[in-house]
Amino acid sequence: MGNATSITGGTIRAEEAEHFGSLAADWWNPKGSSAMLHRLNPVRLAFLREAVDRHWGGDTRSHRPLAGKRALDVGCGAGLLAEPLARLGAAVTGIDAAAENVAVARDHAAGAGLNIEYLHGDLTEIAPGPYNLVTAMEVIEHVADKPAFVTALAAALAPGGLMVLSTPNRTVRSRLLLVEASERLGMIPRGTHHWDDFITPVELADLLAAAGLTMGNPRGIAWSPLAGLHLSDDLALNFIVTATRPE
Fold first, then answer.
1. Which helix (H) or strand (E) holds 223?
2. How confident is the model at residue 242 (pLDDT cuts 50, 70, 90)?
3. Which of 20, 151, 231, 232 fits 220 for a cystine, CB–CB 3.0-4.6 Å?
4. Segment 216-226 mean pLDDT
């Protein structure tokens, strides 16, 4: 389900960037190698929209709740989340470690008439902050130095800003379903996930606290035959959280 690869200096894994870059041309095909990501994206957006409205006290009926705000999508892939953020009114910057992803993202945004800034490389070197909204969806499990990555995310966040992160949980069930079953059955490209790099909600909360941020209550992203992927209290497979800097 990876949204992209590791981004910060010293944490980019060449093999991760190469893996996701090889998927770039097929990224926007909802029935292709990123099909699971297309199913996941509406669930993440539902959580994000609710978090945005709650954080800034906006009008829940507004089509552009992020108007006047700057958003940074870290590990943006080919723009699957960055484009909806732009449609919600944000001035969006996307950053990714794979040059192939950035090229596809730029072309797709241009075709959609969206003005999104896409950058290739290291978050700490090329992404000017601060940003009101920082997102990193399905990214932290791909970085080699998680504390450095979270520190860089926190540094990009403006005072009073909102961060949203999602990632697989490190559980027996996630190993069986996300790694063993999904990759062997071709639902997710082989080599996408390395279970030992998954992070638990408690571990993520500790990393965020060390960076001066407070994590909100995590919501699970679960799957069932009837409901498909959906927000849930079940955190066993995947979870999504907010993080803010205490006033």
1. strand 219-224
2. very high
3. 232
4. 92
Q: State how far the alpha carbon of 107 is from the alpha carbons of 87, 104, 175, in Å.
A: 17, 5, 35
Extended beta strands in 75-201, E state: 91-96, 117-120, 131-137, 157-168
pLDDT tens by residue, 101-153: 999 999 999 999 999 999 998 787 776 689 999 999 999 998 888 999 999 99
Residues 6+ apart with CB under 8 A from 87: 64, 114
* CA separation for the pair 204, 210 (Å, rounded): 10
pLDDT one-digit tens code per residue, 141-192: 988 889 999 999 999 999 999 999 999 999 888 778 776 545 554 555 555 5
In one-letter notation, the amino acid at residue 48 is L
What residue ranges do the domains of the chain occupy?
14-244
Computed on alpha carbons and rounded to an integer, the radius of gyration of the chain in Å comes to 16
CB contact burial 197-226 (16+ within 10 A = b; e otherwise) = bbbbbeebbebbeebebebbebbbbbbeee
Contact between 11 and 143 under an 8 Å Cβ cutoff? The reply is yes
Fold of 14-244: Rossmann fold (3.40.50)
Question: Using CA atoms, how far apart are residues 133 and 118, in angstroms rounded to an integer?
Answer: 16
